[in-house]
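Entry for the shared binder. Reason: the reviewer on the internal report wants the predicted structure included alongside the sequence.
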Amino acid sequence: MHSPTEEPSLKDVSIHEKIATNSGDSEKAGVERLERVLTTQDAVNERFGFSPEERKRIMRHIDRRLVLTVGALYCVSLMDRTNLGAANIAGMSKDLVLGVENRYSIISLVFFVSYVLFQAPSTVVVRKIGPRHHITTITVLWGCLMVGMGFVKDWGQMAGLRVLLGVLEAGFFPSVVYLLSTWYTRFELGKRNSVFFMVGCVASAFAGILAYGIMQMAGLAGLNGWRWIFIIEGILTVLLGIAAYWLLVDFPDSKRATWSFLTERERQWVCARVEADRGDVQVAGFSLKEYLKAALDIKIWGYAIIFFNTTTITYALAYFLPLILTGNMGFTVAQAQCLVAPPYAFAGFVMYFGSWASDKYRMRGAVIVFNMMLCIIGLPIMGFHPNANVRYFGVFLVTAGANSNVPAAMTYQANNIRGQWKRAFASASFVAFGGIGGISGSLVFRAQDAPHYKPGLYACIATTLLTLVIVAVLSVTFWIENRRADRGEKELETDEKDYQPGFRYTI
């Protein structure tokens, strides 16, 4: 037994934990399987000698440095890709003549074409050069691009800059999803994903109010108010990207980073507990064949389609909610900019409650079903009720359900795969399909369908129903596979040479 001051070897800990995990009777299921995992974690804690208070302190420290930093970066990422709606009703549509030939929809969707195409390479790059260099560099660059959008002369220039924005932002979200999954055990990840995305929801909630305030700068330096939206928000992005270089952390197993915020023994403890949980901390050398082999796992595409369905709704709301509030519900521009905020704030509460329940009761699919039921109820209300105030209530339900499903789907996917390169491929494909959902969300609410936008509403209802079907199929499959593993008939997720005995899917 190592003393608390001795530095244990990660290799020794990994072997020790795998033996501990494999020592149980493979035919025992349910509670006994969970007890085996908890016992394994207890062995890690005993080996490193940290008290419960010290372990909580370490995790709080990681949360502050990692979750809050990437959450703040996601704030500006989400604002920068979705501020077209606010700019459009602030005068951009008139200045750039966006009201003809679906030009607004075009500049909305071209972002996602490059965003999707550059997803897959990003998780390989971030593993090679580290998230601190990768994420902060692209953040500063796209902030500069946003400033440039404030000076475009026609809609073609705006479309070109949106394509470049997609190239840069393509590296952010999959890298963050991947990074978060490497730091936390499976049943710690739900709340962290939720807080990360909830910070983005706060940005969405107040982006309209911020945009309305910036609009008041119209005439300053001879620029219209919508131009100042891009300029000011771009400057904020650049400043935050620079600050993140000193705040963001690297992968826990990385030797590149300066671990001033954790001691070596604390870092080893973080790695050991993740290794005990799913056995994939140590990364094999990159192999394109092994990386692409993950594409043969149909579950990965199921997770990706769930995310496509979800982002179709979230991006449709982000780009068209101001137009729906003004055109369909009769609110003024000022009212619409401010009324965007409350539904997103409500979504934050629903999101955190769902993630808390998801981690506490160790369930994932049920939370996704709950979120989709909110959308199923809210979409018809939002689209078809004769009273505008009641339709606005429907906006609350749809916004809460769709946005809460983003971290829920992220955690569902992260809990049910293992292996670093498979995780990297899954993160890239997952977020890429989210980008395709952005293309879909940019197109479903067409100008010719105003003011009721019935085809868009039907499309959102269809994607919601498809998500419910996929979760049902996956849940039944997971239950069957877990039962087979409990009977000792097979080991799950054993594609890589080094795997964790006793792995079970989270339903």
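Summary line for the report: Residues 1-28 have pLDDT under 50 and may be disordered.
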